[in-house]
Amino acid sequence: MASQLQDPLDVGQLAAQRTRLEHDYPLGRFSRLRDSLARPDGVAVVDFRFHSAGAYPALEGAVRARAWLICQRCLKEFEASLESPVRVAFVARDAEAGRVPEAYDAVTAPGGQLVLDEFVEDELLLAVPLVPMHATPADCAMRKAMVVEEVVAVEKPAPVAPTQRPFADLRNLLKR
Ligand SMILES: [Zn+2]
Asked: Quick check: helix, strand or coil at residue 113?
């Protein structure tokens, strides 16, 4: 059935109805996540199936997104696939966290209420690599080569005084 997406959600009710929740979120709306992004572009796709795990409301599914990150090896932007598999059971108090079935992570939802916006953002923050990088060093090298070619192309026509040749070393490097 169609799910109500007005935060906060009643996880007990969603679990009792075995609701499947599918929703898209623009990444730009997540203020904490934006610090990790090179650009606020992209969309997170949420696919959750609510059910019961023992005595606790639970959900299973994933948060997926394509997001622009900064490669820490070459410092260029690149588009990364983020995926956070989710299997959580909701407890009313932190003290109950140890009682959920072993396969589940416990999440505290006071009064059975879950602010889905914050939950999804937390999952995305977990999915962002601590040190984002292009998939392979070759991807970085390709980007670097393109940048060097651009610099040389721009600087070549400029007259260079014999005593000031800042790019002489660079050209020698390129000849090797
Ligand atoms: Zn890179």
From this structure: strand
Alpha-carbon gap, residue 51 to 69, rounded angstroms: 34
| C-alpha 137 to ligand 1 mean position (Å) | 7
The verdict on 67 and 44 lying in the same domain is yes
pLDDT single digits (tens) 26-55: 999 999 999 999 999 999 999 999 999 999
Taking the centre of ligand 1 as the mean of its atom positions, its distance from the CA of residue 41, in whole angstroms, is 19
29 CA from centroid of ligand 1 (Å): 26
Before 8, cis peptide (omega within 30)?
A: yes
Whether 2 maps to a domain, the answer reads no
Asked if 39 and 84 sit in the same domain, the reply is yes
Condensed to tens digits (0 to 9), the pLDDT of residues 90-132 reads 999 999 999 999 999 999 999 999 999 999 999 999 999 999 9
Domain with 67, as residue range(s), is: 9-127
